[in-house]
Structures are given as C-alpha cells and as structure tokens.
Amino acid sequence: MPDADDILERKNFYLEVPQTCKAFALKGSNALDWGMKNRLARVFSPDDCRTVMLAVDHGYFQGPTTGLERIDVTICPLIPYADALMITRGALRSTIPPEIAKPVVLRSSGGQSILKELSNERIAVDIEDAVRVNASALAVQVYIGGVHEHESIGNLVEIVNAGNRHGIPTMAVTGVGKELARDAKYLGLATRICAELGANFVKTYYCERGFAAVAAGCPVPLVIAGGKKLPEIDALRMAYRAVSEGAAGVDMGRNIFQCDAPKAMIQAVRAVVHENETPERAYDLYLSLKSAGEGSELCTAKTQLR
Ligand code: R5P
C-alpha cells in the first residue's frame, strides 16, 4: 500500500536545480532523435566521439577475401577490441555469436561482384531485417562520378529514409572506381553530397593533401577506410594523420585482419585513435604485443566470445 500521508515529506524535486540534458557532442548530430543518438553513442565513444570500427564486409562483392576465409576463426578474437563491427547480415547470422556486446554497422547495399561494374548496386537489406539483427547503423555505398552514380545516391536516400523511420543512423561509404582520383577535391565533393542527403556519418579515404578541408567541409563525422594492406607503421601513420586532421576514427579492415598479428594491430590502432598515441609509439606497442604472442591466436570453441 502506498503511504499517501508521507509523500510530500519524502519526495525531493530539487527545486533549486534547473533541469538539464547535455548537448549531444558528436559532430552534426545534436538535432537527431533519442534513438539515433543512442545508437550513434554505441558506435562512437561518448568520451572522445571517436571510433575504431572493424570492417569485415568485403565478401559482399569479392568473396572469401584473404584474412576473412573463416570469419568465425579470425575475426571473433578481434571483436573485444573494436568499437563496432561492420559486416553483412549473412556473415553476422552465420558466424558472429549474438552475445557480443558490440554495435553492428550493417552492410545494406550490394548486388555486384568484382567481375562486373562495381557501382551497380541496389539496396540489399530490408529495414525490418536490420531491426531484427539489432543494427546500430546501416552502411550504403555511394559512387559519386561512377557509372551508376544516380542509382547509388537513390540507394542512400532510401536507406536514410528507412533508417530515419526506425531511429537507425546511416553510414554512407564513398566508393571510388579505378578511374577516379582519391584527392581532396573529389573526396570533399563525395562526402559532402552524402552528408547533405542525410547520411549520419561517412566513410571515405584519407588523402595526403587537403584532408583537413575534406573533414571540415563534411558536417557529420568522417571515418576512414584502411584500403589495401600497408606496412603496419604506414597504416598507423595514416590513421594518426586522419584523426589529427579531423576524422572521427577509422573503419579499417585489411590493415588489421591481414596483419601477421591482427589482435596486436587493432590495439595499436586503438592507441592512435583513442589515446592520440604517435604512430611510432603505437607501432612499438604493436611489436611488443606481437612478440608477447598477442594477435595470432585464433578463435576456438573455448575462446568463443561471450
Ligand atoms: C567498401 O567497399 C567496404 O566497406 C570495404 O569492405 C571496406 O571499406 C574495406 O575496408 P578496408 O579498406 O580497410 O579493408
């Protein structure tokens, strides 16, 4: 039975304290709805608004990519070190334990292979299925200047609209065909178009010159892809420069899972992104973790994630 007589004496409404709710710090995201912000705060650390996303979605157009032949074996041990996992729904359902407490950025466009024109994509996931797998964000490729530019922009717009209906943010991925230069002028154009059309964050490439302007000209967070496998120190330098020049982190794949010691490498990347560690010191960390045996062990039944 509620103690009706006691209510006024015991309750404290802190009458002298104005109600507050702090602004959402992630770039360009303060006007979003609560669910969007909540999901974005799972992908981007609320402490520094940065992220280390692990991209393992390559199979959607290039099949069993080196390092991803067995996602259950090679990727599961890395998940604890990632802030988010970018993956297809097929790989997610078949290889990733649902107990992982990490947000999923769901690859949501596809429809081509490396044997054909890469920009010829369509939406490849229903929004209901994205909800079903508890996606924290949707990823869609956009080919500015590509053969199917118009259709890929249409895919982005449809995904953004569907995501908005359900409170799920969209990450636009700027796909670059072989014929297009990855320079600041192009990347500035592509990333800005994606943001203007409603992408909540954008994945793009780092460029040596003018990246700071690309990041400044994009009103939502940018994350960079790693691209082809580089020597570890070079990949760490690229990540360092990108975050120093305004990126909100990385969505890195091959430069992590194609390393000799992927577990050591993802920790070194984290040091750069979240601790502003220099590439040289992060590389030392990589070497010491690698020589201590961190990184090459695979996922067995006993080491399955919980
Ligand atoms: C783009 O096509 C996909 O999202 C890739 O799987 C992803 O960008 C690759 O990441 P990385 O270039 O770091 O291997």
Are any ligands bound, and if so which?
Answer: ribose-5-phosphate
Name the beta content range: 5-15%
What structural class is derived from the secondary structure elements?
alpha/beta
Q: Using the CA coordinates, give the radius of gyration.
A: 21 Å
Give a short account of the largest sheet. 8 strands, parallel, barrel
For the termini, the CA-CA separation is: 42 Å
Mean pLDDT, all residues: 93
Separate helix tally: 13
Helical residue percent band: 25-40%
Number of strands: 10
| H-E string | HHEHHEHEEEHEHEHEHEHEHHH
Low-confidence stretches at least 5 residues in length (pLDDT < 50)?
299-306
Backbone shape: globular
Report on the architecture of this protein.
- The chain is globular.
- 38% of the residues lie in helices and 13% in strands.
- The protein is α/β, with parallel strands linked by helices.
- It has helices spanning 7-10, 34-43, 59-62, 71-74, 89-95, 127-132, 149-166, 184-196, 211-216, 232-244, 254-257, 262-275, 279-291, and strands at residues 51-55, 84-87, 104-107, 109-110, 122-123, 137-142, 170-174, 201-204, 222-225, 249-252.
- It is built from 13 helices and 10 strands.
- The strands form 2 sheets. An 8-stranded parallel β-barrel has the order 1-2-3-6-7-8-9-10, surrounded by 6 helices. It has a two-stranded antiparallel ribbon with strand order 4-5.
- The site of ribose-5-phosphate has 12 residues, from helix 11.
Notable features of this structure?
306 residues; eight-stranded parallel β-barrel; 10 strands; globular; disordered C terminus
